[in-house]
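The records we work with from here on pair a chain with its fold. These numbers are not coordinates but entries in a learned vocabulary of local backbone shapes. To see the layout at work, look at the sequence and tokens printed below.
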Amino acid sequence: MTGRLIAGAALTLLAAGAATAQDRSINITTYGGAFGQALNESLVKPFAQETGIAATMVDNDDPPAKLKAEVEAGNVTSAIYDVEQSDVIALCDEGLIEPIDPAILQPGADGSAAADDYLPQALHECATAIMVWSTVIAYDTEAFPDAAPTTVADFFDLEKFPGKRGIIKRPKYALEFALLGDGVAPDQVYEVLSTDEGVDRAFAKLDSIKDQVVWWEAGAQAPQLLADKEVSMTLAYNGRIFDSIVGEGKPFAFVWDGANLDMDYWVVPRGAPDHEAAMEFIAYASNPQRQADLSKYIAYGPPRKSAAPSVGTYKDGSTDMTPYLPTTPENAERALVNDAGFWADHGSELTERFNSWLAG
């Protein structure tokens, strides 16, 4: 058959398993916002153009919850989901996501095997890292014209740095920052938080500013709270704040002390539509240069070592991305590396206590 297939013939071919790439499509669910836009420009659109497989971005505030609900209902609408590290462990243990064969991942820029090129914790039997991001302290520079905050302790110092504080409404990040603000070294945080005394200590530190906290849940809320002058400082996702500073010209700045480093991952839900296309996309997205291209659109670092040298300027062609990446050595030297295993083991109990503490 030559020329364009007519509808009836196309249906016949599809039934016979002979669909062309143009007949195939996948949905990709992410947290959306600036990150979703960056993924769309750097990966999703190029993938569709190069493969002919239609790819559509779907925004969601809680992709892991959506994935779990859809798999359990037997109605999976996206072939690929973007989830955080602790969610990877839980979803994989529950059999809700598919294994990913590392053999499909592209080699490093220097020809090295993918397993050797990815950063520690970037590969999991059921997931592969998309990028490295961080939860940081962001502040309104206009609120502190004389002396700017520089440490996590400053976040809790309402006398020296007045104003309300924004904190994500979940124990993850909030409890780690509380202990860092109380003087616990980054490499000791999870050891302390694994004890009853450590948990009490974290909540006591949060108690010291509780009446000045504005709690947020969606990532877009943190920069909006700063822009609306509802808070003078907030915990925030570094990519969201970067987008506000460079993309919108907001008078915001970062405190890298105590930055909480984490990764997002691609996962494929059990029962995903067009499993093969999902794996094709994950293989495509593993290319080091494409990972470096993602950093042109948002301030998240690549999870592959050989991708780092290829990161250049922002999409405006003039802003050097290095000062804004959580993987830049001087930004990462005082960081806390998030322990996904800890949250997989203790997340439920700490969430229960956190919610009770909020209600009380």
About this structure: The chain has a mean pLDDT of 91.
